[in-house]
Amino acid sequence: MSKMNRLTCCALLVCATASAELPDRGADRHMGVATCAASQCHGSAAPRESSGVMQNEYVTWTRDDPHSKAYATLAGDASRAIAARLEIGSATTAKICLDCHADNVSADRRGEKFQLSDGVGCEACHGGAENWLSTHYNTPAVDHAANLAAGLYPTEKPAERAKLCLSCHLGTADKFATHRIMAAGHPRLSFELDTFTELWRTAGRQPHYRVDADYAARKDRHSHSYVWAVGIMAEARARLGLVLHGAFDSGAMFPELGLYDCHACHRSMKSVRWRALPRHGNAGPGLPYLNDGALVMSMALARLVDPKLAANFQERLAELHAAGSRDVDSIRTAAARLLESLDALDRQLGPATLARREPQLLRELLATGAEGNYIDYVSAEQAFMAVQMLVFEIGDAPMKAQLDTLGDALTDDERYSPARFKALLAQLAE
Ligand code: HEC
Ligand code: HEC
Ligand code: HEC
Ligand code: HEC
After folding, report:
1. Closest residue by CA, ligand 3 atom 34
2. 73 Cβ inside 6 Å of ligand 2
3. CA-100 nearest atom, ligand 1
4. Per-residue pLDDT, 222
5. Which of 86, 230, 272, 369 could be joined to 425 by an S-S link, Cβ 3.0–4.6 Å?
6. Ligand that comes closest to the CA of residue 231
7. Of 187, 184, 180, 189, whose CA–CA distance to 81 is shortest?
8. Which of 60, 91, 62, 95 is nearest to 78 (CA)?
9. Residue range 191-205, pLDDT digits in tens
């Protein structure tokens, strides 16, 4: 049924623009990691040169990818403590935990070899394999587009990938790591698409795919800066979406605090940090502010793409923050208006927009910081990930040498000093 719908949709030529259904939605059965792990499929001990893909994806996922441990995490001490405080029984059976720490599709969508204990397995990202399992290795006889039409999730497309990763690394209207969960001991979540895609490459880990000539023949390859820009806008959009349609209005005295800047409330009272900033409008001191890290990055991006739009963006962001002193309806109205500006920016951004303009983008990010915008930790954290990505893209050795010190300034989030971070960014700009 769902396969038919997708094929019809492609026949009408709307697939290129329509966004794919997330792997945990829809009707396709998930066949289980063991289905992918045969040695002649994706379970080879070492990478193979004879085929387009590495074929040792299963081994890499098991050894290097934290997603393979996501279910085991739920059986650990930290999860036990969280579950006890929330009084939800065992975290290994609680739906709210499994929805992000495993491929928790409904029982009728689990194939014979499916095991919940596989954690975030292949099909949690690549989509239920029911309708493409038997054909997807027939390339080139069966091409990538046909696999996608049969339910393979387009992980290679930055916007689709962002939506996928953010569904767990930020949450959705259906699954969200609320402030209640955080206060029971869950780590604070933060995400940036390019950095997190690259994290598979750090600390002795390796990614389970190679972006080489063969890959480029089958799929588009994108610059890091483009992946970053798409990811930032996707997060900004998703956060505003959660304010409009998600967990935000919990009906309780406080809105969902998980969508706010955590450090607005959780930091030392010994120093008074607040200063009037254009993007805060007339909101004034003493308000908790929504987490707008991705929105501040979008604003810096807008400065590069269309300065007029950037000014409009900043105005509407100020309206959103100022609405925080009124009521939920005002916040939602302002969020909807800001979403329109984001759409306008989205329409102007294509894969070529940033080509060879990384140095300018870096300048805009540094200028945004020089104006004091990284006063809060979440903006600084996003700025650091963006600056790091750009410095590597540009390949500037003296700047690279300063990145460690810049990162060190963010190690302790509760003692973050905006003044120090600003000074370090100014050095980078010299
Ligand atoms: C089904 C939910 C889910 C999806 C989809 C998902 N993740 Fe994760 N991710 C997790 C969970 C849960 C963890 C923590 C695993 C653990 O330690 O138990 C995690 C951990 C990570 C880590 C390790 C973070 C660290 O601090 O070392 C990276 C990197 C990561 N994910 C990147 C991604 C990227 C990139 C995508 C999209 C391509 C993605 N994730 C999609 C749930 C998900
Ligand atoms: C919206 C998705 C989401 C929900 C809901 C969620 N988690 Fe997580 N959890 C994550 C992600 C993503 C990470 C990895 C964060 C990172 O490193 O960036 C994580 C990390 C963790 C960690 C730390 C793992 C480590 O290696 O340090 C624990 C423990 C944990 N989660 C337990 C739970 C428990 C217990 C529940 C249920 C009460 C739960 N989580 C619900 C997404 C979620
Ligand atoms: C957290 C999400 C995630 C999980 C889990 C995951 N993948 Fe991937 N996979 C990706 C991303 C992102 C890419 C790179 C983008 C692309 O080309 O689709 C990728 C790429 C691949 C490729 C290379 C595609 C090519 O065209 O060269 C293969 C093959 C693959 N994955 C198989 C697997 C298998 C098998 C598993 C389980 C053992 C798995 N993946 C688990 C996200 C994931
Ligand atoms: C509007 C203010 C506010 C915001 C924003 C906020 N919190 Fe809280 N948080 C509180 C209050 C109030 C408590 C209860 C304090 C207590 O129990 O002493 C709390 C408790 C906690 C606790 C448990 C502390 C303890 O000692 O029991 C943690 C952890 C926590 N929050 C994390 C977060 C994270 C992560 C975020 C951001 C996603 C966040 N908070 C956003 C106000 C806030």
Report:
1. 122
2. yes
3. 2
4. 93
5. 369
6. 1
7. 184
8. 91
9. 999 999 988 877 678
